[in-house]
Write a structure and sequence with these properties.
The chain is an alpha+beta fold. The protein folds into two domains: 115 residues, Aspartate Aminotransferase, domain 1 (Alpha-Beta Complex); 60 residues, no CATH class. The protein is 45% helix and 15% strand. Strands 1-2-3-4-5 form a five-stranded antiparallel beta sheet. Strand 3 and strand 4 form a beta hairpin. Helix 5 packs across helix 6. The longest helix is centred in the middle third of the chain and has 17 residues.
Length: 198
């Protein structure tokens, strides 16, 4: 087994972390003892295999996390992986609130890391839902049918932005709330912006 070379940007990230420093060090030690390459992407430590993103570590308010990009493909024989958000299609991960928790799960973590590397070696891909597979809320579909320029602008958005709008418009139980959301965000869509864009 090769040992990964530490990345100086990750050294700086851990040194500047306001919390979870010890947890990051512990996770990093486990990750450096693998075939993964330590990189720094999206302002956080990212671990890759032959150029493919495998996992990231980062800090949350209540915990630090280790997230596998293709976690849904892992067998999760210990039933410990969690979904970061209800609409996450592929990412699954661990959350830790202490160094002790990481130490207790060390062998499980190492097994999951090995499995994630095997997933990359095999070339397995996650079959993601397409925007067209999602059910459009009726209130939004009516607007798309009525305003061709809205349809063109929506179709021009990236699939991730399209899904974010569909989930946002679908969330309310009442039709008038769904319609209100659609009307409020129509200018945003027409300007080519995603739900969270300023």
């Amino acid at each position: 087994m090769t040992t990964t070379k530490p990345n100086p940007k990750v050294d700086a990230f851990i040194a500047k972390a306001k919390q979870w420093q010890e947890e990051f060090r512990k996770l990093r030690a486990i990750l450096l003892d693998s075939e993964l390459t330590e990189e720094f992407k999206w302002s956080q430590p990212c671990y890759t295999f032959q150029g493919k993103n495998v996992l990231v570590i980062g800090g949350l308010k209540e915990s630090c996390a280790l997230a596998f990009f293709k976690g849904v493909l892992l067998k999760d024989v210990h039933g410990v992986l969690t979904r970061p958000g209800q609409h996450s299609q592929s990412t699954r991960g661990f959350k830790f609130a202490s160094v002790r928790e990481i130490a207790e799960l060390r062998s499980v973590l190492k097994a999951y890391i090995r499995e994630a590397i095997e997933v990359e070696k095999s070339g397995l891909k996650v079959k993601l839902k397409k925007t067209s597979d999602l059910k459009f809320p009726e209130e939004f579909q009516l607007m798309l049918d009525e305003f061709p320029e809205l349809r063109r602008a929506f179709d021009a958005l990236t699939p991730g932005r399209q899904r974010a709008y569909i989930y946002h418009f679908s969330a309310p139980k009442q039709s008038k709330t769904r319609e209100s959301r659609v009307r409020k965000l129509m200018p945003h869509i027409l300007n080519g912006k995603g739900l969270l864009d300023e």
